[in-house]
Structures are given as structure tokens and as C-alpha cells.
Amino acid sequence: MERKDPRRDLLERAVDYLSEHGVIARSLRQLAAELGTSHRMLIYHFGSMEGLLVEVVREVEARQRAVLADLDPTGSPADVAKAFWRRFTDPALYPNERLFFELYGQALQGRPGTEALLPEVVTAWLGPLVALGKSHGLSERDALVNARLGMAVTRGLLLDLLATGDLEAVNEAMDRFVDTYVAGLP
Amino acid sequence: MERKDPRRDLLERAVDYLSEHGVIARSLRQLAAELGTSHRMLIYHFGSMEGLLVEVVREVEARQRAVLADLDPTGSPADVAKAFWRRFTDPALYPNERLFFELYGQALQGRPGTEALLPEVVTAWLGPLVALGKSHGLSERDALVNARLGMAVTRGLLLDLLATGDLEAVNEAMDRFVDTYVAGLP
DNA sequence: TGGTACATGTACCACTTGGTACACGAGGGG
DNA sequence: CCCCTCGTGTACCAAGTGGTACATGTACCA
Asked: Which of A48, A111, A157, B126 has the fewest CB atoms found within 10 Å of its own CB?
């Protein structure tokens, strides 16, 4: 059970650590020291600093997708949207989300090792969200437009939340959107 | 007229350059070389690397606010929203917006010198947007909620646009939001 | 038993980093 | 005319960087 894959273990701890402390200004050596190894080990397992970054990006993406996966698609669109939002605003996810936005920003600027995020960052979510919309009777086209819009609202409010910490305010904005826009959908 | 302030000049060119190339992985020396000076000059004018970053953040913020300032608040909310969005999706602004999101991400992770962004990043926009909403007859509370929501939609779709480059798709999503939600407001 | 593949530590390398010391030239005011 | 401030360049520094060489430990298989 307890896997003996040191690389996997190292990666998970690295992602956790970087989620808490940010990926900038962390060198191989600092990171290694803080994980209780030597920087030699990170090189050994990931080839290079950039190789590690690539894996971190992949893992962050996988975690995001895991959040999406345990979405329960039953109930009205409004109910699904609210459950979705509640899941995202779980404070336990804040560090991962911060890391996600940090990497997103760096990917936009072309930092090597992070580019892999960009193609996925939107499209990977569109698929499931479109399917969800269609299951509620939307046309392909409408489902796509609304998926995009819903994702934008979610990410935009998440950025707001992470910057201000004002959960009440962003909840209010999301409620307004869901009650006024989403509720009138199907 | 335009002469006399080498520091100001240096700062503007630095922001332009960092907009195009990203703030990570740019050292004092690289940046200086690319601006045609020595890193000594950057230290002289800004005190330190972090001092420079602080000024860059301030300038990016100022530019964002300049975009907000030349908003024409006449016309229906839907018209204003669409004009607003059109202004933001001017490709000439992409580099600035990329830099904005990059710094935003780093500020969320607590990079020294960037923290100044966080308090402003939401609240600085709320004021003018709330005033706009109220001028169209919304209550204080409604204006606030809608300002927050509008900002989230804008930033979320901007993130989408910068990642995918699919202007048509994000325009469609914004149109849908404006026509369905904003149009029903006043 | 021995070998071999993985995992890890120690020591080192060349290079870059942010920051400093210092010298120099131009311009203006006394 | 001298001096002083501003802006700039050159040279330098200690510290930290990513990466490599090599030796070692450990476990499992033949």
C-alpha cells in the first residue's frame, strides 16, 4: 500500500510545499533542504529544475481536474453551480489555487516548463462543462458559451477571493449570478 | 519637455520590456543590458532589485487605472460594458495584461515587492464601478455586487483570452453575459 | 555468494546573482 | 575658477545557483 516510489513522494511533497510558499524564489537547494533531502536528489529524480517544474505543473493540473471530477452532475444547473462553487471555496484548496494562478501567470509569460498548462487550462474544463450543459438540455453551442462564461466567473471570483479573503462578498456575487443568470437557463 | 528624468524613462522602458518578456528569470543585469544600461544604473535609481519591482508594480497598476479612467460612462449599462470590454481586448494591451496577471500570481504567493498590488487589485476598481452602477439607478448594495461580478467576468474571460487567443469565443461569452444579465439590470 | 540496479550523500565546478567601491565627466552656482 | 551634485561606467565581491563526478549504501535476484 504505502508505495515505495520516492519520486512520487518527493513530487507530492514538493507541490504541497510550493503551494504554501510559491514557486518563485525557491531554488533547488532551498526546496530540497526544506523537504529534507539534498538538491542532488531532485536532479536525480527530475533531471533538472525545469523538469521538476514540468512535473509540478502536471500535478497541479491533475489536482484541479480531480476537483472537477468529483462534481455531482445531478440537480438543477443552479444547484450544480452552487455545489461547484462551494467546493472551490474550501479554504483547504486555497494553496493549490494560489499555485495554479501563479503558474498560470508565468505560463502566460512563457516561462519554460510551464507552457504545458496553457492549452489545457481552458479546454480541459470545457469538455466536462459542455457535457453537463447538454445533459440539462442546452444546445452544443449554448453549452459551450455558458461553460466558458461559468468558468470565467468562477476564476474571476476566485482571484478576488484569494486577494481580498472576503468570502462573504464573493459568495454574494456568485449567488447573484447563479440566481439571476444560471437559474434562467434550461 | 520630455527630457530630464532618466529614472522615469528607465522605469517606463523597464515595464514595457517586462511586459513583453515576463518578470521571472529576468535579473537586474539581463534587464539592464537589454535596456542598454548597466545594472549599476538600476540599483542607483531604484535602490535594489526589490525597489525596482515595487515601482514596476506601481506603474502596472497606474496603467490599469488609466484604462479604467478613459471609460465613457454614458449610455446603457450594456453599452458601457461592451465598450469597456472592447477596450480591454485591444491586442496592444495584451502585454500589460499578461504582466498584470503574472504579478498578481506572484503577489498571491507573497513575493516581496508585489504585495502592494493585492489590496488595490480589487478595491481600486470597485469604487468607480459602483459609482457607475449607482448612476444607472442601482442601490449601493446591488451596485457593489454587480461591480464585483462584472470584474470577475472580465478578468476571467481575459485569462481565457490570453491563454487561448480565441477572441471570438470570449467575445461570444461576454456578449451572452451582457445581453442576458447586464441588459436586465436597471 | 556475488552482482547489479536503484537511491542517496559529499564534494566540487563554473557561472550568475544582487550589491558595493570608486573613479570620472558634465553642468551649474559661488 | 573651484566645488559639488548628478548620472554613469568599470571593476570587484561574497553568496548562491544549477549541474556533475564519484563513492557509497541497500535490496533483490541469479
From this structure: A48
What are the chain B neighbours of A173 within 8 Å (beta carbons)?
145-146, 148-149, 152
Indicate whether B1 belongs to any domain: no
Q: How confident is the model at residue B4 (pLDDT cuts 50, 70, 90)?
A: low
Quick check: is A178 in a domain? Answer: yes
A-chain residue closest to B162, CA distance: A108
Question: Nearest-CA neighbor of A128 among A68, A57, A52, A74?
Answer: A68
- Residue A56 sits in which domain range? 6-183
- From the CA of B50, how many Å to the C1' of D13? 20
pTM of the predicted model as reported, rounded to 2 decimal places:
0.93
Query: Tens place of pLDDT for every residue, chain A, 186 residues?
Result: 334 676 788 788 888 888 888 888 688 888 988 888 889 999 999 989 899 998 998 999 888 888 888 888 888 999 999 999 999 999 999 999 999 999 999 999 999 989 888 988 999 999 999 999 999 999 999 999 999 999 999 999 999 999 999 999 999 999 999 999 999 886
From A62's Cα to the closest Cα of chain B, the distance in A is 18
Q: Which residues of B touch A89 (CB under 8 A)?
A: none
Give, in Å, how far the C1' of C15 lies from the CA of A44.
21
- Is B145 within the bounds of a domain? yes
d(CA B166, CA B160): 8
CATH number of the domain that residue A146 is part of: 1.10.357.10
Burial of B97-121, coded b for 16+ CB within 10 Å and e otherwise, reads bbbbbbbbbbbbbebebbeebbebb
Cβ contact A111 with chain D strand, < 7 A: no
Q: Total domain count for chain B?
A: 1
pLDDT of B14 above 90: no
Q: Point out the nucleotide closest to A41 (alpha carbon to C1′).
A: C8
Cα A123 to Cα A103: distance, rounded to the nearest angstrom: 17
